Fold this protein.
Amino acid sequence: MATKTASGAVSGPRRRLALVIGINDYQNHSKLRNPKSDAQKLSSLLKDIGFIIDTSSSVETYAEIKRKVVDFEVSIEPDDIVLFYYAGHGVQWEDQNYLMPKDFPEFPKIHEEDRKEIDELLEKGIIKKEKADILIEDISKKKISNELKTKAINAQNILNTLSDRKPYVIIFLLDCCREYVLRNPDLNRRGGNSSISGSKSTGLAAMHKAGALIAFACAPGTFVDDGPKGKNSWFMKHLLQHIPTPNEDIVDVLRDVTDGIDPSTQIMQSV
């Protein structure tokens, strides 16, 4: 039952809103086994403890996710408890975390015209091989950067957008630390000397936002195995274990979850 505060404002149980996304079947990248089932199990549990979740349609493509985030943002009122969960492929690029939608394209390769021009400079002795490799890598990095910025979802931008609505708290959960290789041979030409370490993702970067509880499936810069099909990820097992705690405030419960997922436990995250 709602009550009045000393100032006369009406107070009562805070609304609980959640946006839960899980993607298995990528069109152009390796498929995953468990994100969708993890998302479904979490959604069911959150409903049981009073969260409002829109499950009217699948949210997997870039357009669907962008539209759903906007709808979710608009629905948030001051003092709401807000939860965002994403399970799927994620990539760290230039210190930003990008969530990859189902229809994210293959990473672009360098155009033959660019490669031919660089090869001609190399043949004429105008540049050395090391410089040629650097030029090719720089071109490839610019292409990948543009692809991520325009066709993937920047996780920090979502967090900032939700925060702008001034909720009571944001619980931001990213279960996308699976090892992922940026499949672009142009980024491997320099071998072990490549400034991006042979194009292999190094996990997700740490994120920060006042008023938010942020948890990753693994410590920044590390990975978690997707696990056998049909089983929950280690991260989801941890969530399912803590969230149903009786007679405890949901924010305290989720703070227990985020506190419990720390670097000392990450090496145990294979399922």
